[in-house]
Design brief:
The chain has helices at residues 2-36, 54-60, 63-96, 102-109, 117-131, 137-160, 167-173, 178-207, 210-215, 222-232, 237-272. With 273 residues, the protein is an all-alpha fold. The longest helix has 36 residues, at 237-272. It is globular and about 70 Å long.
Length: 273
């Protein structure tokens, strides 16, 4: 018995050590970027030259970075709203209706993230150039909606899978219209996943680079602005920008997970009562 416990403890210890090693390998570049964004020296080298916020002050004073950040926030906000709406409608169609070619419908709805971003960027540039959207904020929002909508659809589909299919027919039999049932039953049930989808799609849009690089034109987003900075000289400001972008992205994802988990727990507790 003691030998079995020892073996189990050793296995758990090795598993934890391996997990820590994997995450350390993945996040080491990000951690180094954040650490050196506070380095007083111009070049990222050890030992530190001292703690300083000068690179954050430099990007705050840079008009091109401020404009890129504003463009990224506007595009992320617009893309997240539209993508979440489209993702919900696509997921609800899959949940409620049965029709010929449904498998093809779902495959096409989930296809954009599987397409190489270079191909997607070239296609968006060609298409939007013909209709006059290339280089505009609405064009960027439309392109990011294509990429983000499948993520929203996946989140809402997982939530709808827990909804009893008999609830809506029961409400219809009691006199509720389809719109009333959707508003009073379906939407409150999927509200946590909708909120999570808003934040996740905003994070995906905020970080997206390749498609924005093809079609942004003069309306550069923040990731495109960072690439332009790298093409000139390696500036320590890039570390500060990278730290801010990483912080915003992680914050959106963490808030989405916390809110969704809290609402799901509250819903399950209410259901058990």
């Amino acid at each position: 018995m003691t030998r079995t416990r020892t073996a189990s403890l050793l296995a758990n210890t090795l598993l934890v050590a391996w997990t820590v090693l994997v995450f350390a390998f993945i996040f080491a570049p990000v951690v180094s970027t954040v650490v050196f964004s506070f380095n007083a020296d111009r070049f990222p080298a050890l030992p530190w030259g001292g703690f300083s916020l000068q690179w954050y002050e430099a990007i705050a004073a840079d008009e091109t970075i401020r404009r890129g950040l504003w463009n990224s926030l506007v595009v992320a906000f617009g893309a997240s709203l539209i993508a979440t709406f489209l993702g919900f409608t696509a997921a609800y169609v899959d949940y409620r209706f049965r029709f010929f070619g449904k498998g093809i419908y779902m495959a096409l709805a989930a296809l954009p993230p599987t397409v190489p971003v270079v191909i997607m960027g070239v296609a968006m540039l060609t298409f939007q150039g013909r209709i006059g959207l290339s280089g505009t904020i609405p064009g960027l929002i439309a392109a990011h909606v294509v990429v983000c909508a499948p993520f929203a659809m996946a989140l809402v589909r997982m939530r709808l899978a827990d909804l009893d299919r008999d609830l809506e027919p029961a409400a219809w039999n009691l006199g509720a219209s389809q719109w009333t049932t959707l508003r009073e039953i379906v939407l409150p049930f999927v509200a946590p996943s909708l909120f999570s989808a808003l934040l996740i799609t905003a994070s995906v849009s905020f970080d997206e680079f390749m498609i924005a690089w093809f079609i942004s034109g003069l309306n550069e987003t923040l990731p495109v602005r960072v690439l332009a900075m790298l093409q000139g000289q390696v500036s320590p400001r890039i570390n500060a920008v990278g730290a801010l972008v990483f912080g915003v992205s992680i914050l959106l994802v963490v808030v989405a997970q916390l809110v969704a988990a809290r609402r799901l727990a509250a819903a399950r507790l209410k259901g058990s009562d």
